[in-house]
Structure formats: structure tokens, C-alpha cells
Amino acid sequence: MLRFAICEDELYFARDLKRMTESYIDKRALEAEIFMFSRGRDFLDSGIKADIVLMDIVLSGENGMDIAENMRDLGSSSQFIFITAYKEYAFRAFDVDAVWYLLKPVDAGKLYVVLDKAVGRAVSGCGKSILITEGEETVRIYMKDILYCEVFDHELLIHTITGRYRTFGTLDSFQKKLDGRFFRCHRSYLVNMDYVIDKEDETAYLTGGKKVLIARRRRQEFMHRLLETCQRGVV
Length: 235
What we know:
Strand order of the largest sheet: 2-1-3-6-7
Oligomer: single chain
Helix content: 25-40%
């Protein structure tokens, strides 16, 4: 069962979002439940692990972005959709790996497209993980949390939204364990295309200010993959 959380302090918008979300769940024949909160802090304190969070940015005495960052720091894998009247937060939304950023008033058709993407990420990404050996420990890493991987000084470095892991192996062998969201953009880099936000010449820029190199002979295919990824998220 999917869990949706709506954090909105304006009663009218909260009811409207709930109505549209209920309609979406019904049309997609999903097994799901919706939790309503007027404050982000109440959502945090509830302990509810929501798969998808529709979050207003300007809440009573709070900032929804700060709540999302707090949740990410605690290891949350929730899919965030920010809904607000303020355009200036758009770029920061992607720093917390938001699915999308919608401006009020929200159109139901646009919301459905974004919810499709959020549900897809929640369903396909949450269960996919890999085990690596780091030192004497075995660590489980979820694929959706991996930003990129690189080979450095004969080690494989796995960069995730929560930290970095070191293990031994090659990018070729590691890529075989991953799914289609990953692209070998350089002999030293393997990138999760879901986190690519910009490209300039031989450099790809990722969520959170990270960047990786793109080999000259792979730039055309990289742009093709980036376009495909962007089209899946266009609203």
C-alpha cells in the first residue's frame, strides 16, 4: 500500500489537493491511504513513512524545504512534490531530489503527470538495492539513492544522497548490477541520469552541486539519454 502525505496549512488548498489525489488514486486503481498535516513538524513527529509527500513550501512558521532536508538527513526516501505560489524556490527543490515543483493553482492534469512519476519512482526504486562490502562490513545501498560512481586510485567510490561508500571492483561489473537509469558517461564515471540537472561541454551537473565528466565519444548518447529523462518529467 502506498502512503501519501499532504502538508498544507491553507484549508482550501489542502482540501483541493486531497480531492485531486483521491481522484488520481481512484483512476489509477491504487491501493493507498492519505495523511493530512497542516504543519511539517507534525508530519515529522507522526513517524509516518510516506512514499509520496505533497508539501507546501511556506507553512505556518516553517519552510517546507527545511522539513524535506531534515527528512533526507534522517534517511527518508520519500518522493517530494513541492506545491507553492513562490517561483524562487524551484532550484532548491531539486537539491532535495524533489520529483517536481508545481505552482498554485494546481491543475489536476499536471498533478496527475507528476504523481505518475512519483509513484513510478516509489514503486520501482524503493525495493531495488545492492549489497557492497566496505571494509569488514556489508552495506545495503538503494539504487535510487546513488548519484554517481567513480573509479579512483583502484577503488570504486559510490556517491549517494546520504554519503560516500568505498569498495573494490570495476565500473563494468558494478554497472551490471544496476538498472537502466544509470549511464556510463566516461571511463571513470557512471551516473544516475535522474539526478542530472544540466550539461556544459564535457561536464554534467548533478543535484547538490556534484559534477562528472562526459567522454567526447559519449556526449551524443548522453544528450539522447538526458532528453529521454527530461521528457519523462515534463509537466
